[in-house]
Description:
Blueprint: H1 8-17, H2 22-40, E1 43-46, H3 48-67, H4 69-72, E2 86-90, H5 118-125, E3 129-134, E4 146-147, E5 151-152, H6 168-175, E6 181-186, H7 192-198, E7 201-204, E8 223-228, H8 231-241, E9 271-274, H9 286-301, E10 305-308, H10 317-333, H11 337-341, H12 345-355, H13 359-379, E11 385-389, H14 409-413, H15 421-425, E12 429-436, E13 442-448, H16 454-467
Parallel strand pairs: 2-3, 2-6, 9-10, 9-11
Antiparallel strand pairs: 1-3, 4-5, 6-8, 7-8, 7-12, 11-13, 12-13
Amino acid sequence: MNLADQAAHVLLGLYASGKASPVEVTREILQRIERLNPALNAYCLVDEDGAMQAARESESRWMAWRADQQAQSLAEKAPRALEGVPLSIKDLILTRGWPTLRGSRTIDPQQDWLVDAPVTARFREAGAVLLGKTTTPEFGCKGETNSPLTGITRNPWNLQKTPGGSSGGAAAAVAAGMGPIGVGTDGAGSVRIPAAFCGNVGLKPSFGRVPAYPLSPFGSVAHVGPHSMSVVDCALVMNVMKQADARDWTALPPDPSDYRVGLHDGVRGLRVAYSPRLGYVRQLDPAIEAATREAALALQSMGAVIESIDPGIDDSLEISFGLWVAGAASLWRSLSEVQREQTDPDFRSEAAFGMAMGIEQIHELNQRRGLLGSRLRQFMERVDLILTPATAICAFDCRPAGSAGDYDAQTMLGWTPFSFPFNLSQQPALSFPWSLNEEGLPIGVQLVGPMFGDAMVLRAARALESIKPVQRPHFKP
């Protein structure tokens, strides 16, 4: 058995039975990182000593649990929810003891790193083994993963292709078996795009469901979410990530439910709006459209009620881009002249667009965003889920930071029209890897639920997974 390729929930079962140990698993994953990361560049920091120490502590807990038959019958004395599960953290998320450089040369790594973000703190409390930090473009500013600090991150399905972004390092690491879970962020598709390009499961939860600190400079479009190679793993890790943290004033009230309960209940009777173009998308890869149709038919075969209907919204590219570059401008204003010269030209271009905007324009965009959100919430009273493509194209060629020219709205977001509307509306949305195109690149489909309907989205994704298990790339460096 190749332990590095096992899902997190499978590892927990192996630990409980004594058939594998966190030390074995962590060592095997670290060896794989050492072997594959030079080609993929998915990790920008690996803490081998810290990971092995955490694995040894988890192994001690599992050994004590297995030895104590009474403890096995008492759930409160069982090892913690992610005891011994290795995972990675995107380099936008604060992690105590590790530099969080955000893909940027403007941040001094030689400082005290004393604070955990909410998700990092919850992972430690749950017994996870933190492997290291995964790459991001500077400040998470685009849908591909390259930066002047860390260079180009590559897709394990094809090293000439991008893994997407901005959580491209997390997605590439999970797809390549360099940790079964990767935590990312999603401000316009930054979890779902890499999930679609790399062939794994990526969830953007309802806004506020996963607490964040500090809050993103890009505001309330930014979400924290997981990558995994299993919908079950996604539910498992969300149970930990969604726990409360008082530092996030935008967080939703605590949700005590277990997302694994009902996960296998299927989709019979669920009303699904099949919307392959959202009513306005003109350019769509025919293979992706065909895959989305296949996924709709699969849901229908399992008892879902499929209706070909669009949600009645207009293209929100201008809104998403405008609010995003306003955030980039805010970041830009915080940098010194020396720091500005060190930034990615793509980020500079975004900031320039934002600096040219007036407060009235930003206010108007927020009003239009509110109208979009209202329309989508009303639409979700008619249906339970929306099914769309995850992206309009498959993974494109890698390119160095700053090589895209003028980083305008079309360059940044025009090729991913299905992702950013649901950042604006704050609804839960999940990318599921449905098939491969003729080049052997993954194709993702997207399931969108009503606000707070994260469990329903996971349930529908699990139904798809029951007939189309997630594939791994046959990657050899």
